[in-house]
User: Which sequence fits this backbone?
């Protein structure tokens, strides 16, 4: 979808 | 040994209905404090976080940490075999937790259904949800939020949520035209569950996908109120509180356009 960001940056621990 | 007996078994049925479309496979993490589940959807746009506190069960036993890998569609199919008023008991053994036992007792205790659900190994992503001070927190009737999402889906696939001092405004613009719904903060002493409460640090304007919000509103039967928490450039939190815990949905905002 256009302009849809993801949650990885906020919640995913590397 | 893990054992959890839920008098209000219908709650578990509703809970599964409210997560199964976002997440297919997930681990139920069982500990002394209760049962938790955290999982992102495949596209990493939405996250579900669910907690059922041990005090909500009677009895609740969990000797050590258990992670029960479950296909939520399969669990949902089995839970459909339970009556809405049934008492539901979940059990897993220490040694061979390769299946989850479920029993459904009717209120008269003269019909007991027993099922086994095969468990699976799920390689779960490691998620951490930081505590956040949100710019805006709205508490409103959950049915109203559901209606707004449903109505604006007619107009567009996205909605912009603007929160200012005493108003929350939902706006959608699409090919056929546009629509918006404004709710003013209200307080009803007689029926607090019908009030709209806005706590605001600073004005917020964020855009979200309605398809996901519609999915979140599957939580509506769990609570008369929904809590929306927003901060600029942060995921939206949509929370339904229950007596025994909560279900929280997070949604990444849309950016640019």
Assistant:
């Amino acid at each position: 979808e256009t302009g849809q960001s993801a949650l990885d940056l906020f919640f995913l621990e590397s | 040994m893990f054992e959890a007996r839920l008098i209000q078994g219908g709650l578990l049925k509703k809970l599964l209905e409210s997560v199964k479309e976002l997440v297919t496979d997930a681990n139920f993490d069982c500990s002394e404090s209760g049962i938790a589940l955290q999982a992102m959807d495949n596209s990493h746009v939405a996250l579900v976080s669910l907690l059922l506190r041990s005090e909500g069960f009677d009895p609740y036993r969990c000797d050590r940490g258990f992670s029960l890998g479950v296909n939520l569609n399969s669990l949902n199919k089995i839970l459909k075999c339970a009556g809405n008023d049934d008492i539901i008991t979940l059990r897993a053994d220490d040694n061979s937790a390769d299946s989850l036992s479920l029993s459904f007792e009717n209120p008269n205790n003269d019909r007991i259904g027993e099922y086994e659900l095969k468990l699976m190994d799920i390689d779960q992503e490691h998620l951490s949800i930081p505590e956040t001070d949100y710019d805006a927190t709205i508490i409103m009737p959950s049915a109203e939020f559901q209606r707004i999402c449903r109505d604006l889906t007619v107009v567009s696939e996205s909605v912009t949520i603007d929160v200012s001092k005493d108003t929350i405004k939902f706006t959608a613009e699409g090919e056929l035209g546009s629509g918006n719904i404004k709710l003013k903060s209200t307080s009803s002493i007689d029926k607090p569950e019908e009030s709209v409460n806005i706590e605001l640090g600073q004005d917020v304007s964020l855009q979200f996908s309605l398809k996901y919000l519609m999915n979140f509103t599957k939580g509506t039967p769990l609570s008369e109120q929904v809590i929306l928490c927003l901060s600029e450039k942060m995921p939206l939190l949509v929370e339904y509180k229950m007596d025994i815990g909560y279900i929280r949905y997070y949604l990444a905002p849309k950016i640019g356009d």
Q: What stands out?
A: Chain A touches chain B through twelve residues (CB under 8 Å). Helices of chain A lie at 8-11. The CA atoms of residues 5 and 11 of chain A lie 13 Å apart.
